[in-house]
Structures are given as structure tokens and as C-alpha cells.
Amino acid sequence: MLKFSRNIFIAVLVLFLVFALVACGSKQEGEKKTEPIVIKFSHVVAETTPKGQAALKFKELAEQKTGGKVKVEVYPSSQLFGDKEELEALIANNVQFIAPSVTKLVGLNPQFQIVDIPFLFKSEEAALKFYQGPAGQKLLKSLEDKGIIGLAWWPNGAKHFTNSKRPLRRPEDFKGLKFRTQSGGVLEEQFKLLGAGSQTIPFGEVYTALQNKTVDGQENTFNNIDTQKYAEVQKYLTVSGHGRLDYVVLTNKTFWDSLPEDIKKALEEALAEATEYEIKLSTELNQKSMENLKKSGKLEFYYLTPQDREAFIKVFEPLYKKYESIIGKEIMDAARNAE
Ligand code: LMR
């Protein structure tokens, strides 16, 4: 009798242990399932810029719309990757979202240099229309065979020249100076035609290059000039609006294709809202930065006149001809004629 009850006791104990183990295992499995999908979003500018703020807005909306199933980690100011590394990291899926300046895609598709063709877009609105129209969308799609999906255009604004040597009013004022460029043949050619030199330098190293006089000048939006404190190491600003400095939001194709449909939809919605926010903010922040720069009194401003502009356009004639065959007439015309 005693032996019988002992056997029952052992059987119950074994059953209890098996049950406890199964319960514990399935709990762990359940926990694993709720682990969020992590999106690393890396960029090179300050958090206070349109791109920096829009990346944070995307994070907020993406986490909210997926009910926490997605976690977005934003890394600003080249903290995680600089200019060149961020593209390589995206292709390797070491980072899932980046928003590089369009110019930096020249190695993947030289047609992106449309943004650098001097004095091509008529206005801020024209650039936006181009990006949202068929030519802009075709450019975004062109990255798919490189394992990249172009999700959105985020404009920043028009570029202006700064330098430490003298006021730049006419093409001849550029002679003998050296400028930092982002990358690509158009920018190199632009300075060559002005009789100036150029050097490609990652964004994170520009301030030091200006300070050390590795280069005399650079070209950027009011907001980048302001938030990078270039006024500390530059003396003259030419309000030229000669080219564009805008962004494309990119993701890794393998990562994107692996997402469940409902998550993809929520992320697309979050990005659409963050894009609207970015567009509005880019105008506001560039205006505010222009005022800050003026108020600081550290930079001497010069505004190109219509005559100055014509003189530059004349100098750039060979550039327009050469790059029409590289970029394609269709894209050039779409940019030129956008209103
Ligand atoms: C630059 O390199 O000048 C800019 O593209 C940086 C940025 O992302 O705005």
C-alpha cells in the first residue's frame, strides 16, 4: 500500500515537472514572439535639422502605428556611420534606414546628380514637383537592383556658397580657391569651370577642413551652415541657390521584403506623415537659420543679382551639355520645366 502511494506520488511529481517545463518553454517562446523588430536609422546631420527632426518624427509614428512591434533607433551626427559607410552599411543590412543627401548616390546611379546641375530648378516648389512626379519616382525605383528601396524624397533646400577669402559675386571671384564637395563629377566640374579646385570630404569632417584651411569654402543649405557652425570658420556667404541639397529615405530591400504586410503598411503611413512634416520644417528651419546667420554678424552676405546669375549660367554651358547625355534629356527636361 505504502509502495503504491509512493509510486503515485512519483508519477504526480513527474507529471508536474513535465507540465512546468512545457509551460516554461512556451512562455519563453511567447516572449520571443513579442520582441520588436528593430530599425536602425542612421544619418549625418544634427538632431535639430529638418532631417534630424523628421527621423525622430518617423520613430514616434512608426512605434505608435505598429503598437510597439517596431522599435526605431535613430543615430544622428555620423555617430554610427559617416557618408560613405552608411550606404555600405545599408546594403549589408547593418542599418535599415538612411536618408543621405541625393548627391551621395552618384556611385549607384549618376542620374541623381540632377540635384547638382547649377540653376536648373526654378524654385523650391519646382523641385518638390519633380521629386513627386514620374521622373523623381523613376529615380527612386532605380536603386532596387542594388538591393535598396527608395521610399521617399525629403527636401532640405537650395545650396549657397561660403568661403573664408573674399566675397563671391561673379564667376571670376572663384579663381584659385578650393571648395569641399560632397561627391560626383557635376560638382567637380562646376568648380573647375569657375577656375577653382575641389575636394570630396565627408560631412562630419567639413568644419575641421574649413578650420584647417584644407579648403577655403563649401556649399550648403542655410540650415546646415547654421547648425554646423560654419560661420565660426567662414567669412562670406553668397546667397546663390545654385543647386539643391535634398535627401532620399532608403531601406534595405531584403529587410523591407521580410516585413509582414501590416507592419509595412504602418511604416509607409508613418513615413508619409514624417515626410509632410519634413517638407514643412525644411522651409521653416532654413528661413530661421538664414535669420540666425544674419543676426550673428559673423558672415558678410551677398545676394546674386539676375545679371550675376546669367554670368554663371554662361560659364556652366559645357556642364549642361556634358551632363545632359549622362543624366538623360528626359530627366533634365522634367527638372527644368517643373513649376
Ligand atoms: C553634406 O554632406 O553637405 C550634406 O549632404 C549633409 C546632409 O546630409 O545634409
UniProtKB/TrEMBL annotation:
This is TRAP dicarboxylate transporter, DctP subunit. One of its GO terms (biological process) is C4-dicarboxylate transport. GO terms for cellular component: outer membrane-bounded periplasmic space. InterPro entries: DctP_fam (IPR018389), TRAP_DctP (IPR004682), TRAP_DctP_sf (IPR038404). It comes from Carboxydothermus hydrogenoformans (strain ATCC BAA-161 / DSM 6008 / Z-2901). The keyword Transmembrane helix does not apply. Keywords: Signal, Transport. Belongs to the bacterial solute-binding protein 7 family. PROSITE patterns: PROKAR_LIPOPROTEIN.
